[in-house]
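Supplementary material to the annual report.
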Amino acid sequence: MDISFIAMQFLSGLMMATLLFLVASGLTLIFGVGNVFNFAHGSFYMLGAYLAYQAVSVWHANFWLSVLVASVGAGIFGMLAEFLFLRRIYGRAEEGGFQILLTYSFILVIDDLVKLVWGTEYKSLPRPTGLTGTAEIFGLSIPSYNLAIIGIGLVIVVIAWLVLSRTRSGRIARAAALDREMLGSLGINVPLTMTVVFGIATAMGGFAGALAAPLRSVSPGAGIEVIIDSLIVVVIGGMGNFWGAWLGALILGEVNSFAVATFPEWASLFSYLVMVLTLIFKPEGIFASRKIRRI
Amino acid sequence: MKKSLFNKDIIFWGLFVVVFGSVPFLKQSDYHLMLANSILIWGMFAVAFNMLFGVTGMLSFGQALYYGLGAYSVGLVVKNYGPSLFLPAIGLGVVLAVITSILVGLLVIRLSGVYFTVLTLAFGQLAWQITFRWYHFTGGDDGIQGIMPSGVLENHTVYYYFTFVLVILAIWFLRRVANSPMGLVLRCIRQNPERVRFLGRRVRRNQLRIYVISSFFAALAGGLMTGVTNSIHPDMFYWTTSGEVILMAVLGGIGQFFGPFIGATVIIIIQDVVGARTEYWSLIIGLIMMVMVLGMPRGLVGEIRGLKARFAPGRMSRG
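Predicted assembly:
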């Protein structure tokens, strides 16, 4: 195991971590702000990938324009889902269980709608022009698209953090996480805030799906794989915690990348191993932002 | 109040025994017998699942793990050692499920609410991954076909009555648990775990107990099902299997003891009628789930009871 192998795997893990973070941060945003657990978050990722495919292959749009279409499309679908369905069960007794059941029904419906529209066969996207080759860094040749993803991910992390911590909208979102009623009496439109936050989070899911489409082929059922990975991420990092999601994604991405290179057949089991270890030693997550009600 | 509850139980059991007991005489083909047998087994699975969700408030999305374990124990034992070990294999599956559920349970009950659901899902998917990849042991994606029980159980009618008796025993046992002091503690855990602790009852221990009991019957359901379908498949471990049993419970009514059984009956009949005609099965169950959660959260049985209470004579003023 020489140094260039380790560096290669590290970069590939970083790329995986970026994609994971983009999905998981949306999940954790909805949970942290709205206290809504969106089990269907992976389905919005899948929807993003399919919308990007539609834009590139059918409408012959530019790749980056397609990513935009995918993010906006997934965001609009997310806002509709929140506005039409999810909103009706807020505050109901045993809300948590019903949220999971309702968002579970979204998974089933979106899966079949995708099948109806795009069929069951695997779809793949070409890499965007200009990023098809490799870049040389310290004598290593790395696919330039992977580097682009890592860069985009970093930019998004910084923007999201700045928006959440420095702007008025970010403060409103964080206030909604603490006390919705108080926020409402201060004259903020809380239901609208919730819908918008849901839309932003699902748009991030769709964005990640579109970015990942040239790397992994898309098929119906991708939603559930993605949601389980992002759940492991938020379990590691502590749910509702922005930096926790980032750390969780980094750990999972690197573990996955090295596992794929060393034990290709059993690589997928390593993510679960990390999760089980976290649960044994720190069940509330490494970066738990609030004390989970442990019963 | 107690007396009327008792009467309702008698009515349910009477109907249950008459309807399911007469299937072998009324059936037009073995297919009907298979359908009734599936309803019995899934009904038991759903009632046992509801002891976790409806009674204790623990929404497990990973009961497929135990269902699959029960089924694969039977399938692998019969394939490797012959059909004479069919019954001991069911026992083996159940024992394995108890051991696994204690180990997994100790981990997953450390967290509650959404976290619990997510963890059970992850463990279920882990089991699915292992089954799917361990090709030379489990047969991977192909599964195993041609698993037959031996001796008198080879006869479909005998096998049907065999499961019928087991399901009656199982539901009777679960009913006892639900009405026992432990059942009361479980209900309290759903509503206010902290108070249960103040009252000197152990929350975690009771949660673990019901998790193990529920998993025991999930494995029994899996084992019995192999005798009906004669095959096993990794999908038995897949999260959709867990989702299906949840749907049955929600459709029937999670607040009612027998609700999930009714839910299982309705789902299996719908699956039989609709599933044969369309490939968009998950769209249909997704829409059913959506309607139930948004419009009828008490489930079919709960809503009907609600209507009855509303229009009962002398209670109009309450409406």
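The CA atoms of residues 178 and 264 of chain B lie 19 Å apart.
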